[in-house]
Amino acid sequence: MDTDINTNSPTAAQPTAAPVTPFPSAKQDSPEPATDAAKEAADTLLGRVTQSAHDVIDGLSARVSGVTSGAQDKVDQALQARDEWTTAARDAVRDHPLLFIGGALLVGAALNALMSSRRDR
What is the pLDDT of residues 85-109, one digit of tens each? Predict the structure, then answer.
């Protein structure tokens, strides 16, 4: 009595497995309390990170604003000093025109003497 079982034939019975769900305890219609807690923790963490980022940006903005206003003050002071010196020079020339003409002639003669002494060498 030879029983020949052919396992390669298409008619041979194959064992079938029950379908496997990846998360058998997960329900599709209502979230778990742990999921709600995780979501709340993530929202809290995101809120903290967002607030920290806003605080950093506000601090940097205040520092930059302070630096730019300080620089603008220095520029304004320099422009005001320039205007004051220009006004003072104009007033001095108006008050003593001959003195400034003599000074210009003296500076021109000195430059001429320096330049001519270099040519003679």
Answer: 999 999 999 999 999 999 999 999 9
One-letter amino acid at 11 equals T
Q: For residue range 38-62, what is the model confidence (pLDDT) as tens digits?
A: 888 888 889 999 999 899 998 888 8
| 60 within a domain of the structure (yes/no) | yes
Q: Is residue 98 part of a domain?
A: yes
Residue-range definition of the domain harbouring residue 86? 53-120
Domain assignment present for residue 14? The answer is: no
For 88-114, what is the HEC assignment?
HHHHHHHHCHHHHHHHHHHHHHHHHHH
